[in-house]
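Why do we care about 3D structure at all? Because function follows from shape, and shape follows, mostly, from sequence. That is the central idea of this module. The next example makes it concrete: a single protein chain, its amino acid sequence, and then its structure expressed as tokens.
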Amino acid sequence: MSYLVAALYHFARFADYASFRAPLQAVADENGVKGTLLLAHEGINGTIAGSHEGIANVLAFIRARPELAGMEHKESHASKMPFNRMKVRLKKEIVTMGVDTIDPLKTVGTYVEPKDWNDLISDPDTIVIDTRNDYETAIGIFRGAVDPKTKTFREFPRWVAENQGLHNKPKIAMYCTGGIRCEKATAFMKEQGFDEVYHLKGGILKYLEDVPEEESLWDGACFVFDERVSVTHGLKEGEHELCHACRHPVTPEDKLSADYEEGVSCPHCADSYSETDRARFRERQHQITLAKARGERHLGA
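And the structure:
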């Protein structure tokens, strides 16, 4: 069975977002849909998975809210259910930058369609910036892009302040997984006085879906926030797994390392945890293995 995965977000004036939580959770549960959706005064963000009919019903329910009627989503597929449960959460921001003055509904960068992206980032007058975090950029990035190596999106404004060389070229092209971080990142850059700011419409996911691999300037895989861990060109499932100790994506090569122990450690975190931590991780992995043998899913996986 193939599960439909829908990545979605929409910035909106959503004052009554808290009251939408319970009915949205109920509709998702009724339709067997799982994943995570975030609600805030600025809109909705998240990824869900389920049957085609179930996803269609949940998306229709969301779009029935006048504030969210214009919401777009991107689709891909998973060979198994990529989420353990359905969570609808209330947040201060649907993507956390921590700068209260940023409002993508007031100002935002210029959208660039995937088919036009290669020309923009190949222009010598363009600086290309990846707005994702270091564990994401570690497995894939656009050729020639600047990697801020941030641990969280909250670090991005400080990184911009510390890198005045960004003013050396007239054009700034920014991208992220599905587009939402770029909405805020480009709005922030415009507020900082940058004039020609562009971002990839639909993010890396839309680029990998639309642009043929032989024409692509993307190297590697794209990290996704579900149990598939990564996708490649054509939105095919990648080869990465997730280290359940540090949550870092693990390659097949990483698994050959002496530092790799399933559910306990990987080359990225081998020196980061105590023996007490490792013992706890081993017990969790043991419970996951037992649940799998029973044909069940362990919620701690």
